[in-house]
Amino acid sequence: MVSFIKPKWIRRRVPDPTALAKMKELLNGLQLHTVCESALCPNLGECFGQGVATFMILGDVCTRNCPFCAVAHGKPTSLDENEPQHVAEAAKRLGLQHVVVTSVTRDDLPDGGAEHFVKTIYNLRKILPNSTVEVLVPDFRGLAKATEVVIRAKPTVFNHNLDTVPRLYSSVRPKADYHVSLQILNRAKELDSIVITKSGLMLGLGESSEEVLETMRDLRQVNCDVLTLGQYLCPSPNHFPVVRFVDPSEFDELRIKGVEMGFKSVVSGPLVRSSYRAQDVVHEILSRQKG
User: Fold this and answer.
1) At residue 226, what are phi and psi to the nearest 5 degrees?
2) What Rg do the C-alpha atoms of the chain give, in angstroms?
3) pLDDT, the chain, mean
4) Is residue 64 within 8 Å of 105, Cβ to Cβ?
5) Cα torsion for 39, 41, 46, 48, to the nearest 10°?
6) Is 190 helix (H, G, I), strand (E, B) or coil?
7) Alpha helix locations (H) across 30-163?
8) 136 DSSP β-pair partners
9) Looking at the predicted structure, is the pLDDT value of residue 30 above 70?
10) Is the pTM of this model over 0.90?
């Protein structure tokens, strides 16, 4: 049974309506979507208030219907060929020094949308040559060629979320495969040892502490550099239920253990999402590498 009584550490302030209106005006004018809105991110008010957004390409309708996700699903429309350029234009207007781009899953496309990611990266590099670029990609149905195409476009960060522990895949990510997702991260690192690889987990779905640690070890086995850990929040009574709310102290403990395992950065907390503090993390890692 889902409990909608959230602990105090989950609650966020009401977002500034002026900041929201300004961001939405920009996005609507360029016919763009954000995962912040589509996935009901609890940090939307904070990020939009700072002029930051995670762009969602390939439209706003997903071909999958994962029971944890609030993104609309069904039959998507044809690709907007202007979308890559519009993302770059929006990023420029916002003055972003780090641009995060994700997408819906498009199992209907032969390459899963990989070439669209490439076009978006190229447009961002052209308009914002000094900005770093992070892509959060779907599994492309496990197509190795799709991962290769995206990596060759030289994103600064290549992110692919495992989302949960392998035992829960059949109920949480029924159309995905845990080992395929690990292979995607491993292949990305094999193709480009410089790219920063990243993944994330949602907690509170019924996983055990040891299962989380084992999944973290699996990520280190494929040389994943960055890990995000956050509390799963149920979008509606029709979605996968929250089994428990994880105490902030547990997130702190996992962060420490993750650093001990060798992750270059672990962002861990109840309200952490894939792109939370993304700019700070990548620029800190790049600064350490240069130093």
Assistant:
1) -125, 140
2) 18
3) 93
4) yes
5) 0
6) helix
7) 35-38, 44-49, 83-94, 114-127, 144-152
8) 102, 159
9) yes
10) yes
Cα–Cα distance for residue pair 38/117, rounded to 1 Å: 19
Over the stretch 188-217, which tens digit does the pLDDT of each residue have? 999 999 999 999 999 999 999 999 999 999
Strands (E), the chain: 33-34, 54-57, 98-103, 132-136, 157-159, 196-203, 226-231, 265-268
DSSP letter for 202, please.
Answer: E
Q: Token pair for residue 127? A: 């308009």
Size of the chain, expressed as the number of residues it contains = 291
What's the rounded mean pLDDT across residues 143-170?
98
Task: Tell me the backbone φ, ψ of residue 178, rounded to 5 degrees.
Answer: -55, -50
Distance CA 47, CA 51 (A): 6
* Alpha helices (runs of H) in 95-196, residue ranges in sequence order: 114-127, 144-152, 169-172, 178-191
How many Cα atoms within 13 Å fall on the side-chain side of residue 89?
Answer: 12
d(CA 211, CA 15): 35
